[in-house]
């Protein structure tokens, strides 16, 4: 959606005869870029602020277990990357980018405001050998300790401290430290009484954000593309400035929203995200005519405008997404020993739709390319599809940031930055900070290497990115060996992971969309762009599944044995790092034939 054709590229002659050099500019670019830059900055402020809170909100306020929370997070981010395919198409054909952006901004801000209404914190309880007991939370030794108390006639007569053991059993101890009972593995089940109304409200809010994002995300970029005539060499640098707004917005919100959530309440963190989204809407709605002529509707005067019908259908998508979220949360676990068939059967409806579409689209497009295209076109499409598949792997692992890595920060990280306490949600700001810091360095590096004829090819950059994301996890795992007696690692180990991951992101993210447009057969570029976004959507869903593998049993939203959680995260992160590095090396080995199939595309 970035390189949407301008009026000039559609064959309309440039009759303005205006010298661009004589026009007022913003850092040498069209002045409208400043407003679109700020609009995107505030939208990303809202989205990333909400995202920094979401997993913690699910585990601490609603007291969902890790599996439900990370699965829901993965499903939500999957829809966030899938809906732009529809929103971009509707804007191109009927709405125009400007109206689509406004509609998306309103719907997203409403979604963030709805998240402010979470009701009372869920009341945790535990079921021990079929008997239900209340869970009491006490502040002890600078942290929270869980106790089970008698809420019905049973064996437990006094509050007993809960501690999970390495073998899966649970020990209940008295005040004097003596063991009252050891519950066998599987005999202790933690859950919570939560209001069905407020859970439904939360899922409704996520559905509204998902639909609204589909209208906003692709079309604000389209408007940036319209600022430049075909062949204007400022286009790439204009998008570089525009995308800096994304990182500036996310950097600010990932510090401020978690701070307010901790200092005031969850509602304040989500409320600030909603205010940021309203600023974004105001900038595009009350533009003072500065954006006149950009992002206008393609519907000619006198033709029937289908906008109201489209907006109504979009609103119907909200309950549809709500049902997908409900299905995702209630999916049955895989039956042990059922194999791949059992795994597919255990997927949520959303998972089946995503995987089914992706597994049909990739070979289907390749078969079509083989039958309809030339040998050269087929080879270029084959190279593109190979890179699309590896792209799924990269984003699956990279997107642990909002789920398993946030929970690791909350449970097994010393949350202090230069002596200043921070929250687990705020640790996500490291990625945005390092992107802002590294982007100009990486740009200079690639430019310098290109001048010497040494710039890596696209497959090599993808391979480096995969190896980098694996090395980031290995770096954190190395840090776990230095954990103190509280089973927590220094914050700098987590910051180091984000530094390496940010470097890896800059190796793959800026070249992905450009690669698709260059390698695709001209007749199906739009379809291939859809497959690219679909691959990222699939990756977000799989990221949720990977985070579920790293799940740790909790009581009242907290783990009762930090050694168990540290060992669990270390084991999972080690495994996925080995997978990433191995696949990265494989891609480096495939780089030569892929480069040959790309026929000079750089």
Automatic annotation (TrEMBL):
The record's section on CDD domains has: MFS_DtpA_like
Q: Where in the cell is it found?
A: Cell membrane; Membrane
Annotated TM spans:
70-91, 103-122, 197-216, 237-261, 267-286, 307-328, 340-368, 380-398, 429-450, 462-484, 490-513, 525-549, 569-592
Q: Which SUPFAM superfamilies match?
A: MFS general substrate transporter
User: Which keywords has UniProt assigned to this entry?
Assistant: Cell membrane, Membrane, Peptide transport, Protein transport, Transmembrane, Transmembrane helix, Transport
Kindly give the PROSITE patterns that the UniProt entry links to this protein.
Answer: PTR2_1, PTR2_2
| The UniProt record lists the keyword Lipoprotein | no
Q: What is its main location?
A: membrane
Please give, as recorded in its UniProt entry, the membrane topology of this protein.
Multi-pass membrane protein
List, alphabetically, the InterPro entries matched: Dipep/tripep_permease, MFS_trans_sf, MFS_Transporters, POT_fam, PTR2_symporter_CS
Concerning its family, UniProt says: Belongs to the major facilitator superfamily. Proton-dependent oligopeptide transporter (POT/PTR) (TC 2.A.17) family.
Specify the protein name: Peptide MFS transporter
Q: From which source organism is this entry?
A: Sphingomonas qilianensis
Q: What is the lineage of its organism?
A: Bacteria, Pseudomonadati, Pseudomonadota, Alphaproteobacteria, Sphingomonadales
